Fold each of these.
Amino acid sequence: MNVPLLDLKAQYAAIRQDILRAVEGVMDTCQFIHGPQVKELEEAIARYCGCAAAVGVSSGTDALLCALMALEVGQPLPGGSAGAEVITTPYTFFATAGSIWRVGARPVFVDIDAGTYNIDPSKIEAAVTERTRAIMPVHLFGQVADMDPIMAVAQKHKLHVIEDAAQSIGSTYKNRKAGSIGTVGCFSFFPSKNLGCLGDGGMVVTQDPVLADRLAQMRNHGAKPKYYHKRVGGNFRLDTIQAAALLVKLPYLDGWSQARRRNAAQYDRLLAGYAPVKTPVIRAECQSIYNQYVIRVPQRDALQAFLKQEGIGTEIYYPVSMHQQECFAALGYKGGDFPESERAARETLALPIYAELTGEQIEYVVCKIRQFLG
Ligand SMILES: *Cc1c(COP(=O)(O)O)cnc(C)c1O
């Protein structure tokens, strides 16, 4: 049996006609930049997330970058000193830390919770300094980070909170949607995310209409009006074609997430009480959208190689913690600084979880895991 990690063709086959019609609609009008579908999608996403406003951008990475620029996080601090700091997790996709670095700020890492793999809020306050400007929690694998204590620290120290919700659109924390809790929320529409477009795309959401206006300026070189620049922004625009495709897909999102939860529940059931495998920990106040279903196992690399041999696709998210990346050597971190993040990088493995996966495929995956681990 063949079980790929992800099967984008299965999803596409089900909505092919509507996608093609939507793309054709954009082609016919030739409004490739800021066509009406961009605004329509922004309104739909804002509504979906329970936010005041949404601003379409060119990727999840650019959503983070645009948010950091709009909040002037990299600008010199009052008194003129450089060296702004942003507190974040070392166990994430590179874009989180990379975007902080790119605005000239310093990523300050805080270790993760061993169960959820999200930033450990109890460790954040100790990392706050007079240079801290923001906290950037990541809602990893589809589960929202523990936001109440994060927001409490942020309020106490007057920090922005930039939610990296690239893996968590539609996920909830105490019935609030990912991205709607902090100062801004950033989404990615990379094809492998729960809501993927036809290439790269992203969105920033916020409850603050003034900030939304600033974000919209930043995505278009900071211009307002056209050709007049009070700030330096970039080209962070979302293509009309991407917005049109996303408008077709958005109504399916909750159904797809539901199917992922059903698949996760089947894995959970089949692996319950099986000591060698630790299944995902989802907190009671959270509903995950399972962008990934990540287990923790001994002999992770050998298991991955075996599963590959048996036709099963898996992925390691992520093999190297951010504080150990070569490009961040100047930050001065070393191995052992964030033991839970480093352990997760050694022990975790993502299994196929996409919506169209069948029960038989999941049984096969678990059967092969048990065959290997004994
Ligand atoms: C995917 C992802 C991003 C970046 O999104 P792109 O659309 O690929 O630029 C940022 N942060 C996290 C946690 C992600 O998973």
Amino acid sequence: MSTVPLVDLKASYARHRDAIDAAMREVIDNTRFIQGREVAEFEAAFAAFCGTKHAVGVASGTAALHLTLYALGVGPGDAVAVPSHTFIATAEPVTWLGATPRFVEIDPATGGMDPAALKAVAGEVKVIMPVHIHGQPVDLAAIAEIAEDAGVPLVEDAAQAHGADYTRGDGTVVRAGGYGVAGCFSFYPGKNLGAFGDAGAITTNDDDLAARLRMLRDHGRTTKYEHQVVGYAERLDTLQAAVLGAKLPTVDEDNQRRRELAAAYRKRLAGVGDLTVLAQPPGRRGVFHHFVVRTAHRDALLRHLKEAGVGAGIHYPVPLHLQPAYAGLGYRRGDLPATEAFAAECLSLPIYPELTGEQLDRVVIEVEGYFERV
Ligand SMILES: *Cc1c(COP(=O)(O)O)cnc(C)c1O
């Protein structure tokens, strides 16, 4: 029987092949490998996509987070509010800067940072950095209000949320990365907009912050031979910018397809075993980077799916506050019960724009098949 992968990068390349090959060929022919014009072109196009004034291309999503926190002055002795239910790259740059991640509990319905839990620590942190985890926007208005009251900048880790949107109380729609002081994006190959290697970007409406980030990513340069500050080597590679520029035009339709697939999963999986799906609160339109279900039978269901040739994954099995890397912070099991329960029960099913109706059927049938036997 055919297999259904968790993600299918080959299917994505097949759809975009002509545009990608032509764009890469152009860079290679002109040998503009560093800061070629494709970088600035992609930055302008991505800023327009996000509805922000600026997008600053960088070498990875991790670099986006690192440079943003550095530019905002995070340093030794500071704390930064982040979720524990996320990829470790959300917290690592905090630690590199000599600051401490302050892990905030999640809303179990969505997996995103819980505003009520944030409120309790907002007065003690230098930056508030929620994650639009699984591509689902967090409650930005509630979190922004807390950030404002505390006088602390809000940074969005939007690494999984290209094109997701949030409707404000006044009806205006803001895309992920456009609500906070800055939005940090990853273009890791499997993300909703993926490069052919590592790449990332920072979105912002702040001219000074954008200028500072442009300096920091490129050795603190103001001109070829003048270095205003000690910076980093975290530029967006021109070949990656060319790939991203070729793929950006279809991201909205790709996200729409992901939403249709998610709606089909929700309908077909309702009432199957003890499965629950994540909430989609009104005014917060997600882009389904992952399609996550929860079940007390997670590990056995995952084994069953693997044996049946259905790709499934766990995002993420061990929360950051319980990772060996963060043992030194002194958190214990039980400190963040909603986060820990989520990590124990979550399972990601295959979702990507090229997933066919037949493949979705296969996944649903195998999930149903598992629960018929328990
Ligand atoms: C992928 C990801 C990152 C890191 O991005 P890279 O491009 O892999 O460095 C950061 N945060 C979250 C939530 C991510 O999913």
